[in-house]
Every structure is written in structure tokens, then in C-alpha cells.
Amino acid sequence: MKNLGVVLGDSDLQAKIVKKRKRMFQIAEKYGMNSRSTIKVSQELDILINQYQRLKYPS
């Protein structure tokens, strides 16, 4: 997932995080925790979580 310069609000990011996490669990159940697909979605989730943390806790 690439950052396209779109700034999402707090609730938008939370919704995306919840959706991405559910998707990750679905893929992990089907293909396993170490599958490329699961890892890819996990990395996308990490990006969303990092964006949320930067929004909530700016330095």
C-alpha cells in the first residue's frame, strides 16, 4: 500500500485498520501465518497503524 498523500481522519484510519486486520486474519487462516499474502497484508496494516500513531501522537 502506497501513501498517495491522502490525509485520513482518525475514524477513517480506525475503520481501515479494523478492515485490514480482519482481512489479514482471513488470509492467515486460509494460507498460514508465514504465507507471502499474509505478510503483505500485515505490512499494509503496519503502515496504517503507523499513520494512525503519527496522527494521534505527533512529535
UniProtKB/TrEMBL annotation:
GO BP term (any one): regulation of sporulation
GO molecular function: protein dimerization activity
InterPro entries attached to this UniProt entry: HLH_DNA-bd_sf, Spo0E-like, Spo0E-like_phosphatase, Spo0E-like_sf
Gene3D superfamilies tied to this protein: Helix-loop-helix DNA-binding domain
Pfam families in the cross-refs: SpoOE-like
Name recorded for this polypeptide: Aspartyl-phosphate phosphatase Spo0E family protein
Classification of source organism: Bacteria, Bacillati, Bacillota, Bacilli, Bacillales
